[in-house]
Design a protein that fits this description.
single chain; about 110 residues; alpha+beta; Arc Repressor Mutant, subunit A; three-stranded antiparallel sheet; 5 helices; about 15% strand; DNA binding; Metal_resp_DNA-bind_regulator
Length: about 110
């Protein structure tokens, strides 16, 4: 079963939440941290991550800082104030969605 399909619609929320908690991070670091937090259950590919990061940056939810590390330029992403507000909204939506899914999956709990 392809578990990652369940996460695709949640990637923006995952990224924003992670950056809100961790501070600035570069792309590869984000992928590794998600994998670490989920004990390897969720693997975020670069092909999914970078378009999401660019979309969030275009919306003003993330900003970018460039830094030279070991003679290479590294692009760090960090959440803006607007991004922090949007993260709170997205997390509330996610919690509501999860509650509804729990009721649908196990109606006896309702």
């Amino acid at each position: 079963m392809q578990k990652n399909n369940l996460y695709k619609g949640s990637l923006s929320t995952i990224v924003l939440s992670l950056l809100k908690e961790q501070g600035k991070m570069y792309g590869y670091q984000i992928t590794r941290e998600v994998e670490k937090i989920t004990s390897g259950q969720l693997k975020v590919t670069e092909g999914a991550l970078y378009p999401t990061l660019h979309k969030l940056e275009a919306k003003g939810l993330l900003s970018v800082e460039m830094a030279k590390v070991n003679n290479r330029v590294r692009k760090y992403y960090y959440i803006t104030e607007k991004g922090k507000k949007e993260t709170a909204n997205l997390l509330n939506e996610m919690k509501s969605f999860i509650s509804n899914m729990e009721v649908l999956i196990n109606p006896k709990l309702a």
